Amino acid sequence: MKKISIVAGGELHEEFLDRIIQSDEIIGVDLGAWWLFSHNIKPSIAIGDFDSISSVQFKSLEEAGISIKKYSTEKNETDLELAVTLACSKKPQRIEIFGAIGSRLDHSLGGVFLLTYCFEKHIPAWIITKTSELTLFSGKMNVLKNDQYQFLSLLPWSEEICVSISGCKYNGENIVIKRGESRGVSNEIVGKEAHIDVSSGIALLIQSRD
After folding, report:
1. Helix residue ranges per DSSP H, the chain
2. Which pTM value belongs to this model?
């Protein structure tokens, strides 16, 4: 299975490193590229306008022989969107995005919305943070119980979803949840795995811990 990791410049933690290096390709996004390099990881490619790092840091990336795609600061796309588009063009079986969530709410929400692009390309994509993982999906999914994540939430990404769920504290058949409702928040897996069937609509799945 070909997996691409995208490392953006939001909240990043050293505990991500082992997971990142297991990827087939690593895309560093602006400050994320420098963060990788500073932790002795050379990304497959660095992309962005690089307005978040110094000219000395950028030169270090160049001198290390890292392939760089540099864009103007005046552009329609965020650096992360450029990275996601590039990753999808390589047709991987999975994309994991680190550093998409940070202190700026606009960039964080924009990063989450980019999951739509991957979903439309039929490429499973996950945003990874220190306390949660999130993805978009429709159809059936089995989610193994994981001691790392206590909570499982399903929110409607489309106008509404119809979902059946078992193996959790709160189960049900053909539950309709409309966008703006919070009914799917903070469920818990009690069996070995949760069985989820989103028979209509698109759901945002979030696994999280306190």
Report:
1. 17-20, 31-38, 55-63, 79-89, 105-113, 115-120
2. 0.95
